[in-house]
Amino acid sequence: MEEGNLCHDCQTKLIVQERPPFPQLEGMLHSTYIPSNSEIMQVHTRIESANHDLDLYEAEIEKLLQTLSTLKQQRNELQRHRNCCRAVVSSFRRIPPELWAEIFLFALDNQPLLVAEHRIVAPRFLFRRHVRSGGM
Question: Coiled-coil regions in this chain (predicted)?
């Protein structure tokens, strides 16, 4: 059996069957040679062994993909949490509403505000994307 370390931190190993060289295979492949019954049995044995090891690789890859997916999801949740924290302490929150009103009135410069459902809606040009999302 041949061992391969997949992770040096947790020492996860993938154990697959060691395959001794089979030099006749290359000659059989690129010729019109017809293999004997014993050679056919050897090749079938190698195919079965390779299929078994390929299944092990596929299972390990699937576990790693699941781990990667979980890590990405946890990273995304942490980034959202961090962004919320940043928004709470954003310097824009410390600007008094009265000052914002003055800024809007100055920026509008005779352009009307829309009133919808008892609230004032400023034109979109007043907000840049990172201001709307709470970033700096």
Answer: 47-81
* Average pLDDT score over the chain: 79
Q: Are residues 33 and 100 in the same domain?
A: no
pLDDT tens string 59-110: 989 999 999 999 999 999 999 999 999 999 998 888 898 888 888 777 777 6
Model confidence at 113, pLDDT cuts 50, 70, 90, reads low
Question: 130: domain range?
Answer: 94-136
Instruction: Map 44-84 to HEC letters.
Output: HHHHHHHHHHHHHHHHHHHHHHHHHHHHHHHHHHHHHHHHH
Spatial separation of the C-alpha atoms in residues 131 and 91, rounded to whole Å = 10
Is the domain of 73 the same as that of 111?
no
101 and 73 belong to one structural domain: no
CA count, 13 A, side-chain hemisphere, 58: 6
